[in-house]
């Protein structure tokens, strides 16, 4: 939570989502709009709790720490932008593995051609760059 939301980091007492929703000026929303906001807040809280549990399991811990919750909120908030980097990492892994495998295969069987080596090396380098991009953004 940030300071504006009355989180613990600001030195103020923690505030519940329902209390924060009650403090919002409802006149700026239609009835359906405010209802949708309330449902989205509830869904976000559930999603953060579920993702926090997944992250805690990944770290093989029994309890969910503040670190796990922070990472879960970041992961959910980043949404589709992070998915693009994940896909880039996957494609990068395929290219890196394929390029390296092909170069080693050509060199070990003495069937290497200049075009084959160049193509495989390009796949290797592009794959390495995509994996690096994924690691940096994650």
Care to describe what's here?
- The protein starts with 16 loop residues before the first helix and ends with a helix.
- The chain contains five helices and no strands.
- By secondary structure, the chain is mostly helical.
- It has two domains: 3-78, Histone, subunit A; 80-137.
- Helices cover 72% and strands 0% of the residues.
| CATH architectural name of the largest domain | Orthogonal Bundle
Strand content: under 5%
Strand/helix succession? HHHHH
Head-to-tail CA distance between termini: 21 Å
Largest sheet geometry: none
Mean pLDDT: 85
Q: Report the principal-axis shape.
A: elongated
Helix/strand layout:
Layout: H1 17-22, H2 31-58, H3 66-78, H4 80-108, H5 114-137
Helix pairs in contact: 2-3, 4-5
Précis, in short:
The chain is mainly alpha-helical and 138 residues long.
Q: What distinguishing features does this structure have?
A:
138 residues, mainly alpha, Histone, subunit A, 2 domains, 5 helices, 72% helix, elongated, disordered N terminus
């Amino acid at each position: 939570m940030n300071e504006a939301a009355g989180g613990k980091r600001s030195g103020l007492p923690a505030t519940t989502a329902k209390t924060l929703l009650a403090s919002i000026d409802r006149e700026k929303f239609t009835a359906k709009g405010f209802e949708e906001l309330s449902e989205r807040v509830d869904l976000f809280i559930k999603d953060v709790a579920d993702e926090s549990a997944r992250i805690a399991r990944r770290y093989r811990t029994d309890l969910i720490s503040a670190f796990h919750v922070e990472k879960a909120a970041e992961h959910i908030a980043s949404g589709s932008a992070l998915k693009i980097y994940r896909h880039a990492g996957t494609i990068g892994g395929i290219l890196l593995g394929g390029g390296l495998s092909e170069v080693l295969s050509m060199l070990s069987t003495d069937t290497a051609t200049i075009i084959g080596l160049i193509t495989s090396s390009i796949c290797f380098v592009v794959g390495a760059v995509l994996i690096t991009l994924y690691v940096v953004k994650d």
